[in-house]
Amino acid sequence: MQLSENVMLLGNRHFNYFLVGKKEAAIIECGVSGGVYSFQRQWEKLPQKPEVKYLVAMHSHFDHVCGIPALQKIFPDAVLLASSPAEAVLKKTKIIGNFFAQDVKMLDLLAGEGIIPRGLQSPDVTEIALNKLIAEGDEIKLGGDLKIKVLDAPGHSPCSLACYLPAEQVMFISDACGFQISDEDIFPVFFQAYDIYLETIKRLMSYPSKLLAIPHERIWTGGEIEAFYRRALLSAEQAFNKIRDLLDQGWEDEKIEKELFARYYQGNLKIYTPENIRQCVQILLRRVKEKL
């Protein structure tokens, strides 16, 4: 799907890949191996294909990096970009092993929804090696005057990036604003720190944007964008206040975690395993307790 003159959307609704550029291009978001299967089927049908020069890993969580090996098979000469904190994670064999164990489960979930065929294999990978580090202030140049500005976007994780295409006012936010359970409901993901998470959302809001390119589910445009940002802020504030209030009432951690899991594990979030989301709500609880 063509989103703007220089931005095309490929993949499936759970894992969006953004092809930026007409002659020279970057792929923003690397997803999972099951997402790349969808991407490749669409890529092969494109009548005109740009030269993909860059793969941009927006942060080092399994659902944003496990598609890298499959993408590198399609684009062996592409330069893999990510932040320095992401590189530190991607060098750790134990973490990568855990990531790809989750990638296997994601293949099953996507196949169960009929998005991909059954029987696809996750790659056997022990490390993901970056080609170049990027950070706030860097630019990804795609020929002519087309440039992507790199922004640090911490809060969800220390390694998170956002990208901005000034020429078309397109903002690529990765998971900086949470996960869209539905078009109205957002799962807040302040896994690094609550205050930093809110600061990042507010900063991203300050950029004039005609298109909000999100890695999972719905893409927002025009007047819908500010409403999305407001929902993201509200979802984080509500989660923080809810956890704080339950702690004040003397609830034990396990009971709070069950309450949060029941609240959020629904809709689109069910593409992740229950174990994954239980770990996520445990992290949210820890971050609130750290701030109190």
Note down, in words, how this protein is organized.
By secondary structure, the protein is α/β, with parallel strands linked by helices. It is 40% helix and 20% strand. It is built from 9 helices and 15 strands. The strands form 3 sheets. Strands 1-2-3-4-5-6-7 form a 7-stranded mixed β-sheet. It has a 6-stranded mixed β-sheet with strand order 8-9-10-11-14-15, with helices on one face. A two-stranded antiparallel ribbon has the order 12-13. The protein starts with a strand and ends with a helix. The model has no long low-confidence stretch (mean pLDDT 96).
Mean of residue pLDDT? 96
Largest sheet: 7 strands, mixed
- Strand percentage: 15-25%
Low-confidence stretches: none
What would you call the shape? globular
Separate helix tally: 9
Helical residue percent?
Answer: 40-55%
Compute the number of strand runs.
Answer: 15
Order of helices and strands: EEEEHEHHEHHEEEEEEEHEEHHH
Structural class by sheet pairing and helices: alpha/beta
**Strand arrangement in the largest pleated sheet:** 1-2-3-4-5-6-7
CA-atom Rg in angstroms = 18 Å
Distance between the termini: 45 Å
